[in-house]
Amino acid sequence: MASERLLWLVAVGFFMQTLDATILNTALPSMAASLGESPLQMQSVIVAYALTTAMLIPATGWVADRFGTRRIYTAAMALFVLGSVLCALAPSLQFLVGARVVQGVGGAMMLPVGRLAVLRAYPRDAFIRAMSFIAIPGQVGPLLGPALGGWLVEYASWHWIFWINVPVGVVGIWAAWRWMPKSDAQPPRPFDGVGFSLLATGMVGVSLALDGLSGIGMGRALVTVLLVFGMASLAAYWLHALRTPTPLFAPALFQVRSLRVGLMGNLFARLGSGAAPFLVPLMLQVGLGLSPFHAGSMMLAMVIGSMLVKRMAVRTVLRYGYKRVLQVNSVLLGLMIACLGWIHPGQPMWLILLQLFIFGGINSMQFSAMNSVTLKDMTGESASSGNSLLSMVQMLAMSMGVAVAGAVLASYADLWQAREGYKLLALQATFVTVGVMTLAATLVFSQLDADERIAPTPDRPEG
């Protein structure tokens, strides 16, 4: 009974995260209007959360071992709830971005620490079944998020997309303190604090530099300095990892070809797939003038396409192999993102829904195959490090994708602001540009071995 309660507890935390991630995008235009900002420059709200999560993921395992999963999971939920309250009370964009950082600290720990608690509570032969149960709410959250976000914005206010986290989170905090294992702290192990600082500084520097290109107040000199220091920090981390006995991520991990290719492919492919959920609501609301609820409801087509194709991923990879699937699908993904730029006010709604449905399916195939090929050759202790590294790269790529999309969008808007309907033109051009950039992933996946046909792992949540 206690183990079943643990599964429900971790599943609720996963649901809160996935719901929050998808419910926010539909509300961005309304949030911009309320805070007196341009709807084309709201990407910092998404970047702040994703970047914070990416930055802290490498430390979550050590923190959970040091202080115990119950304490850390409870603290994670409390921080997520606190961040939600601060977001709901935000009087300005800057305050909102800071509140999203607080949310991101909680979100970074919630799922990894919850997964760790389940791993310790269940024997290996039952772990896959337990994780499959936890993954179900992760699929329900994106299904409800866009429409629920649009409904709350249209019939209440955007503040309620954050207030709804509070009662669920409070119950979760109580349940975590009561049902999480009480004494599972592990013997202390070394933590690479220097490596963590260098890696975090590098990710923050590069991401903020990309976000600064959108014209959020940073001068070009500051953007250049951030980019140089970010790249230098990442280079310094690599040199540090080569000589320290206990690095965050051992350089030996990168001797595995599938991991190297999978991580780099994730980084480039997610520049487009991570930007699309940010751009699509803007296109539907700012470009086409749809209401928040109408736009959110239409985005369900993406989710349905994703869920239907997800079941086909295993059979497709088994038949054609990872290399062919990822090369072809990366091209299709880039072209489909570019095709979303063809959306215009006179277009039939059924055609827009079909475009979103197809994009959702292609995106789902990409996620499933990329996640699987990255981890398929990881064994023993390297599996845990590889999983953490993949999670970090996923969130970093999403942060960078949204930041790049925001910068491109701002550039086109500045270029055409004297023309009538410049916002729609800027959105259309941004989709095409991001789609072209996504094609770069094809070059990365061409480095895979042609005969790799092992089926994707079914127990890893998509995304």
From TrEMBL:
Cellular component, GO, one term: plasma membrane
Residue ranges of domain Major facilitator superfamily (MFS) profile in the record: 6-453
Organism of derivation: Comamonas aquatica DA1877
Subcellular location: Cell membrane
One function term, GO molecular function aspect: transmembrane transporter activity
Regions crossing the membrane: 45-64, 76-95, 130-152, 158-179, 191-210, 216-239, 293-313, 325-343, 349-369, 389-413, 425-445
Any Pfam family the entry gives: MFS_1
Keyword annotations: Cell membrane, Membrane, Transmembrane, Transmembrane helix, Transport
Membrane topology: Multi-pass membrane protein
Domain of life per record: Bacteria
Name of this chain's protein: Major facilitator transporter
Coiled-coil portions: none
